[in-house]
Amino acid sequence: MTRSLRPTRPRILLLVVSCLALSVASCDDDSPTLPSASGLTVVSTTPADNATDVGPDTDLVVVFSDPIQPATFDGGTVDVMGGTVPLAAGATSVAGNTATFVPDPAFERGAAYQITLTTGITSTDGETLDSPFTWTFNTQAPPDTIPPQVTSVDPVDSATDAPIDAPIVVRFGEPIAPATVNAATLVLIGGSQPIDTGTVSVSDGTITFVPNPSLDPLTTYTATVGTAITDLAGNPLEEPYVWNFTTAGP
Q1: What are 81-132's pLDDT values in tens digits?
Q2: What distance in Å separates the CA atoms of residue 246 and residue 47, rounded to the nearest whole number?
Q3: 36 part of a folded domain
Q4: Cα(9)–Cα(157) distance, integer angstroms
Q5: Residue 101 is part of a domain; what is its CATH number?
Q6: What pTM was computed for the model?
Q7: Do the domain assignments include residue 50?
Q8: Are residues 121 and 183 in the same domain?
Q9: Contact 59, 87 (CB under 8 A)
Q10: How would you class 221 by CB atoms within 10 Å of its CB: exposed for 0-12, middle for 13-18, buried for 19 or more?
Q11: For residue range 16-41, what is the model confidence (pLDDT) as tens digits?
Q12: Phi (first) and psi of residue 226, to 5 degrees
């Protein structure tokens, strides 16, 4: 007996139909997409916000998130407040997303400034700042041009019972440059011989000189602080400071 073989139907068509159905379902998916970032923002500023000791000749430099239109960055969109003299735009320049504002005149020393960028600044794509951008900074203090002043001495002027082993102390109203204190700028003379040996130390605005050997008893001494002594800014003493004292008996 002979059995006839029946060919099975191919299932390729079913597989293709299934794939097409899945593809159509995927195309009909309404999944939300993330919105693209938009809007002009400030990335960084020079000087930085709350900066201190800013030089008076510093230019304002602002880096934006996008290139900006040069015509929209000027004295009308950059507001400078502070000091005693109003500042305008001496010059402005834009290179891509970096804008520079040169104040005219320069910043004052020892002043606080507030800079505001208005929403009139526009990117090359037409985007603007969502709101005005403000930052502040402080400039360097004015240079010190005031000479140091002697405020007190030990032994005091005209003392008559100064201990022979007490140090000679000179106090100033501000810190003194230690390198300017030496045997030539702090001179102690008693009798006919200068006393230039001992230990000298400087701590802020105080000079301490411990003579070695000790002073002689019942002797009048003249102490002189020379004008070569300066403060930390280099300002010298206006004139020599001289005083006298007499040591106590043995």
Answers
A1: 999 988 888 899 999 999 999 999 999 999 999 999 999 999 999 999 999 9
A2: 58
A3: no
A4: 126
A5: 2.60.40.1220
A6: 0.61
A7: yes
A8: no
A9: no
A10: buried
A11: 334 444 443 444 444 343 333 458 99
A12: -80, 165
